[in-house]
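User: Working on a comparison across species. This one is Microcystin LR degradation protein MlrC-like protein from Duganella vulcania. Can you predict its structure so I can line it up against the others?
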Amino acid sequence: SGLPLDVRAEVLCVRRDACQPGLGGKGGDALGLAVAIRVAGIDIVLNSVRQQVFSPACFTELGIDLAAKRLVVVKSTQHFRAGFDPLAAATVYCDTPGSLSARIDTIPYQFIRRPIWPLDDLDQASPPPQQETAP
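Assistant: Here's the predicted structure for Microcystin LR degradation protein MlrC-like protein from Duganella vulcania:
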């Protein structure tokens, strides 16, 4: 998501009702209208339904051969691993700002008791006061 970009692109493939296997390879998750384009030698997949990438099918259904790529980038939090780990020599995470940041120390929590692991060093924290229990 974001602001539109003005680019010169070659349209490689258009699919009106593209989908990908859901989590665990079950069912089909709609991607909607999906287009593969090439901009400055980089193949890009665009789709009309906001959806995480679970499966290489997001690329292969649009004619993109992942085995021919040195680098594949997906917009997904963690769900892509099952489908892409068998193809990847390595996985590198890229963090972005927002509520789904993997850097939990940057999230402005409002209603948590401190200290709390993993945000705080519990070895340095004072233990909470003990509550008395009835005999």
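For your comparison, note: The mean pLDDT is 87.

User: Helpful, thanks.
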